[in-house]
Each structure stands twice: as structure tokens, then as C-alpha cells.
Amino acid sequence: MNRAVPISINAFPASKQEAAWRETLASLGLAAQLSDTDAFHFGEVSIKRSPTQASFALLRSTAQKLTALGQAARKTGEPARSDAPVLIGFVTYGRGHLTDSGRRAAEFADGDLWVCDPANPFSVQFRNDFELLLLCLPRERLVGRFGRGATVPTLVLGETVSAAAARPLMRALASQFAVMEDGDVMAAEPAVTELVLSALLAEARPEEDNATQVQAAHFARVCAQIEARLREPELSVADIAKAEGLSARYIQRLFEGQDRSFSDYVRHRRLEHCRLDLVNPQHADRSIAEIGFRWGFADQAHFSRVFSAAYGISPRDYRKSAGATVETRWTRGRPMHSGARPVRPAPAAATGAEAADLPAPVRPREAAEPGHHHLPVSRETVHWGYLSRSIPPALRVRSGAQVTIETLTQHAYDDHERMIAGDPGAESVFRWTADYKAVDRRGAGPVNASIFGRGAGEGFGVHICTGPIFVHGAEPGDVLEVEILDLKPRPSANPAYAGYAFGSNAAAAWGFHHDNVLDEPRKREVITIYRTDAAGESGFAEAVHSFRWTPQTDPFGVVHETIDYPGVPVDHRRIEKRVGVLAGARIPVRPHFGFIAVAPRESDMVDSVPPGYFGGNIDNWRAGKGASVYLPVAVPGALLSIGDPHLAQGDGEISGTALECSLTGEVRLVLHKRGETHKSFLNGLGAPLIETPDAWLLHGFSYTNYLRELGRNAQSEVFKRSSLSRALRSAFRAARKFLMERYGLDEDEAISLMSVAVDFGVTQVADGNWGVHAKINKAIFPESRAGSPETRLEERIT
């Protein structure tokens, strides 16, 4: 996803603000000359980079002069960069002037559009606060099509039709910049380019171009006709001549005036469209042959040859390399496009369960009576990183059953000595050698890792889930209550750490903080290891050490530059531990299950990261001892899975993870049949509900049923479309419905009460489908109250 998070200079300490601003501008090839009298105090930049090497940037700041990076050095004889991008700027607001080679070229104001070529000295002087939308365009997109020269003029565009059409387009892009995606960027770039090129040809025709106005008009019409018919494989100069009422020879002379032939121009335009489509995520499902055919190349071998000759790289290699050259925000989840198809190193031999898509069937223990059951963790009783209605149950129980359930954190390999060593259950799940991997599939992606090559399942889902548990009698429309009776940390089995339990927090690339760090390196990921007493009686945890993630090579030989696949063994010889972190800080522990889910019905393989109506990765720390979690049943038997154990978490889960710590829980499972339960407000429950001794917590998500709402690419789209405003609206609706059904309020009463007494909070912004919860304190409505609101008010007064 190409989500641009603004780089706000105000977030830096005052002593670093100017340096941060200059560094950010340098990434765009710009330098700033600031006033010596006034301290720099404001600047904000958002950048969207396209796979085609173009960039859009939205800049806001105070009065200053912008020049090309290194321009001052070139005054002393240093040559200009031959590859410097052409700059197209739209001034949303602000006033100033543009200079070309040291002379004043033109004034500009709000709504003006200008072009600058760093191949020649230029400056953009803003006299007051401004907002500027900048398109940094690879120079071959314009230079080769604008006369015979190697540069583009620096000027403020006037009132030509093309310039008039480009300005509202740029204004719309600036206003919608925060929500632009890769596809939007790639669609906007050629649209702006063509309009600006047309305006330049009309307003600043090169001096060496001796064409008359009539010839220029004919050439523009011919080019437009060619552009509209590029997909015709047999397109000829005769076809264009007939369509325009011109002679073929005359058209050939028009192109000769541009030092090129008709066929060269057609080939160049076709190749440019193909090059854009090869890296466009909206065309990722098309083969290279399809893309070539789409733009008039009927023969794939011919297309590959001419593409390689033009760009020095084959279409296949260009498509593969594009993903690595685009700086986009690291995100979780299945991409809409597959990009390269690497071959994943595999164990020497894998048979049976090791090679299966789903865990091997285990014989679930049957339960004639509710009774008490124990579900330990092992490679046979867990599934890693996904939910599925097809996973064979690990346990079958009846309503009312009590289950001791063991859960493992997927982060245990961050410190093998403290969280895995000597623990048979953990070792059976995490064991991974060059020729054996205990749990192969980790995520909902392809088992052959054909998308990124990270490993089986691709890490599209990360949580180790114990289960599923089949509840007899559970049918779609029912509600399953998971009553959490107790939670204890899993003690370290290593004698060297007896008496302690350990957990890990990863400040990861998918964390909300990641685009807003101050210190270098800014793209770092940091692991912090914590400990608490094994008995869970102290009530606090403390940090042991931290380390920055360095590239780790897994036992199959795959290098993981980032934390992109769960359970990768961390080689502590390759990291630098930092001890004494958070010295003196005591973290209040509040153990809870981050992941409690029934199987969704919409898809057979679901990423464990985004929560939804079925529960899942809710990440609400209130799902701890003494709480009940209510989940709407979607498939027969409910198929309950529990995982992602947390020792502590703050609302928001800002760094991307909580204090991840293996836990053992005691739970009771109660089935509420639709229309038969005494808790009538559960009928028609549409999203997870948590009940604590003191409160009700209603959950809203950006998309409550994203699997249905977002279509066939739901497990990709949810990571791109989530917003807190949608989640808040969802939580509001859930709370309103609950208050009206549980307490008999009418809508006006419910809305007023929510505003004066209900607390809405951000549950998490780490899980793709962002969450907001509404907390309704039970004390607002003593249970003895009944009847109409007026009756309850009279009772309160008397």
C-alpha cells in the first residue's frame, strides 16, 4: 500500500527541525534557502512514489526559496545531472516568483501551475506560507517528446485549454492526497503529463522548431489519433492519414521535423504504456504477453526484444525489479498483485502433515457431558496464522464445558532461551531445521510461497491459534460465550530462568508509529524482551533488554530483512542487545487473549490479522480474567480458536504488538441458542461483545464483515481502506443497538446517553481492520431497574 503519512517537522525537537526539513526535501531533489532572520518553525511533506519512478509530493511550509539539489555547486562548474526529474508544481495556496537561469521568469499565485527543469538553474521563491503539489517526473516522459532539445523550459503555464484542464486535476489530487493509492498515482501521472506536454507545445515551442501553427495543430491531431488507436496491431500511417484527411507523406514529414519516424513514435508510445502496465497493481493479474497484446504487440517474442532494446531490461525483469524500487509503507496482508514469483527453499523431504495445506486430522476427544478438558499446545493442536471452517477439530465439547487451554505467542523465537528452550509444547511447535519444519503453513497465503517467497503461508496471518474447539449444537445464528475464569503466564522451562515468564514487544514496520519516528535509522524495528514472575502474582513486568532487528536467515535459507514472517529464529549472535532499557519502569500486567474467534463462513482460508464479526484479533485487553466474550456463530460447531496471548497492552497497540507472552487459560464455553437464551439482547448479535463485572464493551471495526463487504479481494483491501472514522461509526451503531435492546431506550435516549456517559476508545490500529470500542458502565443502569425510562427516573428520585 502506498499510504503517505505526513512528515511533520513540528514533531521534531526544535534543534532538529531545519535539518529534518532539508533532509526531506533532498529526497525530492530539492534544496531550501531559508531566511537568516526568522527561525524555521513549520514544514510538512507527504510523498507518494510510483512504481514508474515518478513521485507526487504535497508540501506545506513558510516563506523560502526552493532550488535544485546541488545547484549551488554547479555554479562553480559542476555539470547538471542528466537524469534529474522534471518538476511540475501546482500552487494550492501561496505567492511568489519563478526564476530561470537567474532571471525573473514569472509571478505565480494561488491555483497556478508551473514547470521547472533542474538541468538548468532555477528557483521557486515563496514569499509567504504555501501549499504545493509537486510531480517529480522522469525526464524522458517529456524531454523526448518536446522538440529536439535535451531540456524543458521553466515557466508558469498560461491559459491554454490543456493548462486549464490540468489545474483542477492537480487541485483534486492535492485535496485527496491522503487517500490516494498506487493505482491512483499511476493513473494521475500520465494524465497530468499529457496535459502539461500539450500546454508546453502550445505555449513554449522550441526555437529550433520551424513548424507553422497549422503544422503544429496537425501534428497534435495526429498524435492524439495515434494515442487513441495504439491497441490496433496493424496501425499504419495510412490509417492515420485517412482518419485525419491528410496525406501519408505529409504526416511522415511532420515526424521528420521532430527527428523521428512515424513507426518509431508509435513503438515508443506503445512501450511506454506497456512499461506503466507492467508495474501497475491493477494489471498485476495480466501476463506479460497480455499486456503486450493490449498495446498492439501481437508477438510476445517481438515485444520482449523491442522492450529490452529500449530500456535495457526484459519485461519480466522490469516487473520483478519494480516492487523492490518503490518505497511504500510496509503493510501486512495479501497483496492484490503477486509481483515476482520466487521459488521458496524447501526442506529436503516433507511428507504427510508437513506438506499439507491444513493441520493433519487429529482424533478429537469426544464429550458426553460438559465436564473439564485440557487442550495443550503441540503441532497437532495448533494452526498458525489463519482461520478456516475446514480445520478438523482438536476438541469436541458440549455447552457448559470448562477447558484448560494452552496458548503460545508467535514471538517466542525472539528469545529462544527464555521462551522456548526446555518446553516440550513450545519446542514441538517452533522446531525448524534445514530439513524439518514442525508447522509449515504460517498464514493464509500459498503453501508454495509463490508471492514473496517468505515461507509457506507467506505470513499473511501470524497468530498461533489453539483449536479449533467444536461445540455440539452450535449453529449459525447462535452466540458462543467464552467465559475467562483464569489466566496465568507460561513459565520459562529453562532452569537458568526458573521462576520467571517472559514476553516480547515488537515495534514493527506495521505499527502506527513507524512513519513518524525521529531518530535514525527511521525504518528500524525494535524488539524489547520483558519478564514477570511465573506465578503471575507481582502484578507488573519489567524490561530485560532490547535489540534492533537485523536481517535473519531462516533454516531454509530465506533472508528476512524485516519482521515479515512469524517464528523466524533470531540469531542472537547477529544482534546487539541493549540492557538497562526502561530502567525502573514497572508495566502493569493485565493478561488477556488478543485472539478469540469462531470460524467465519465467507471464505475457507482467512488471514488471522484483521478482526471481524467473528472475533479474531480483537486485541482488547479487557478480554481477561473475569470477562466473557460473546461471538456470533457462523458455521456448525462454532469452531472456536484462541491465541495471541498478551501479558499487557495499551489501547491502540501503537507499536504494532502488545507484550506478547504465552498464557494458559481456564475458560467455560456456554452456547446461547437463538431465540432461547435468557439474554435476549444476544439475539442477532453482529459483532464481538465483551462483558466484564463492571461494563459492557461493544466493538466496531472499519468493516465489520470485511470478507463480504470488500469483495473477492477483501483480504487485501481491508489493509488499505481502514479508518478510525469508519470504526467509530461502527462502534456507535453497535452501542446504540445494544442500549435500545438491552435497556429499552429509544434512539434519542440512547444517543444522549452515549454522549454523556459512554466512553469510546481506540482498541487497536495494528490489525488492518482498525477497531474502536464503546464502554458502557453497568452502574448507569442498576439491574433492579425495569420498565420505561420515565419509571426508572421516578424510582431514582424516590
Q: What are the salient characteristics of this protein?
A:
18 helices; single chain; 798 residues; nine-stranded mixed β-sheet; disordered C terminus
Give a verbal description of the structure.
- This protein is an alpha+beta fold.
- 24% of the residues lie in helices and 25% in strands.
- It contains 18 helices and 39 strands.
- Strands 13-17-35-21-32-36-37-39-38 form a nine-stranded mixed β-sheet.
- Strand 18 (432-433) and strand 19 form a beta hairpin.
- Helix 3 (161-175) packs antiparallel against helix 4 (182-203) and helix 5 (213-228) crosses helix 6.
- The chain is elongated and about 95 Å long.
- Residues 324-330, 337-346, 348-356 and 786-798 have low confidence and may be disordered.
Protein structure class: alpha+beta
Instruction: Give the proportion of residues in helices.
Output: 10-25%
Largest sheet: 9 strands, mixed
Strand element count:
39
Q: Give the overall shape.
A: elongated
The separation of the N and C termini measures: 59 Å
- Count the DSSP helices: 18
Rg over CA atoms: 31 Å
Average of the residue pLDDT scores: 87
Structure in a nutshell:
The chain is of the alpha+beta class and 798 residues long.
Could you give the topology of this structure?
Layout: E1 7-8, H1 17-26, E2 30-33, E3 43-49, E4 55-61, E5 64-68, H2 71-74, E6 86-93, E7 96-100, E8 103-108, E9 113-116, E10 122-126, E11 130-137, E12 155-156, H3 161-175, H4 182-203, H5 213-228, H6 237-244, H7 248-256, H8 262-278, H9 288-294, H10 300-311, H11 315-325, E13 372-375, E14 382-384, E15 386-387, E16 395-397, E17 402-407, H12 416-419, H13 424-430, E18 432-433, E19 436-437, E20 464-471, E21 479-489, E22 500-507, E23 526-533, E24 540-548, E25 552-553, E26 559-560, E27 578-579, E28 587-588, E29 592-597, E30 606-607, E31 615-616, E32 628-632, E33 640-648, E34 659-660, E35 663-672, E36 689-691, E37 695-701, H14 706-709, H15 714-721, H16 724-742, H17 747-757, E38 759-764, E39 771-777, H18 789-797
Parallel strand pairs: 13-17, 16-20
Antiparallel strand pairs: 1-3, 2-5, 3-4, 4-11, 5-10, 6-9, 6-11, 7-8, 7-10, 9-12, 14-20, 15-30, 17-35, 18-19, 20-33, 21-32, 21-35, 22-23, 23-24, 24-27, 24-28, 25-26, 29-31, 29-33, 32-36, 33-34, 36-37, 37-39, 38-39
